[in-house]
Amino acid sequence: MLNLPNLLTLSRIAAIPLVVACFWLDHGWAQWVSASLFAVACITDWFDGYFARRYHQISRFGRFLDPIADKLLVAAALVMLVNNGTLSGIHVLAALIILAREILVSGLREFLAELRVGVPVSQLAKWKTGAQMGAITILLLGDAVPTIIGQIGLVLIWVAAVLTLITGYDYLRTGLRHMAEGGPT
Predict the structure, then answer these.
(1) Among 29, 46, 48, 96, whose Cα sits 20 to 30 Å from the Cα of 40?
(2) Residues 6 or more apart from 82 whose CB is under 8 A from it?
(3) GO molecular function terms here (predicted)?
(4) 28 — alpha (psi -120 to 50), left (phi > 0) or beta?
């Protein structure tokens, strides 16, 4: 059960309290540590999938835990960014879109799993994840970087939100098709 991919996934969950703690320390180096920990945690998402496929270590535990780890990491960061005002006003909408889609897709995946229907991750969803992770990493840096860098983070969070809507619609369309096929339960 505890192979390298699963350990990487667990490390992503373990990083969450460290990202949060560093984020709330005095500004400067702590913001850099928080953003760096977040970025490293994001990179482990790619590596755990790579190692699982490359070394045939795909497990039920990993398939269960990997998306949860991703969602916990992103949700914790977005909540912090909204709470401290980095994402405020209209930018809170981008965070809500991202969080709502994650909940929707999780529910759909669970429903479709009961029907033994797999929903592969699309290339567009991977781009969404990249934009989202890049945006959050930048936004975690806050006032430790020039304002223009923060503006890039805000643009990226909106790029992620738009891609989130598109990919969320794709997943929803797939789910609704399978719901309609089954008739009453």
Answers:
(1) 96
(2) 88, 92, 95
(3) CDP-diacylglycerol-glycerol-3-phosphate 3-phosphatidyltransferase activity
(4) left
Q: What is the CATH number of the domain that holds 127?
A: 1.20.120.1760
Of 37, 44, 2, the C-alpha closest to 16 is 37
Indicate whether 181 pLDDT > 70. Answer: no
DSSP symbol at 85: T
C-alpha gyration radius of the chain:
17
Interatomic CA distance for residues 93 and 82, integer angstroms: 10
Q: What is the SS3 assignment for 106?
A: helix
Predicted confidence at residue 60, as pLDDT, reads: 86
Asked if 166 contacts 101 with a C-beta cutoff of 8 angstroms, the reply is: no
**Encoding tokens for residue 52?**
């699982």
Range of the domain at 98: 4-182
Q: How does DSSP classify residue 145?
A: S
Residue 163 binned pLDDT confidence (cut-offs 50, 70, 90) = very high
Tell me the pTM: 0.91
Compute CA 80 distance to the chain's CA centroid, rounded to the nearest angstrom: 14
Identify the CA nearest to 94 among candidates 168, 161, 164. Answer: 161
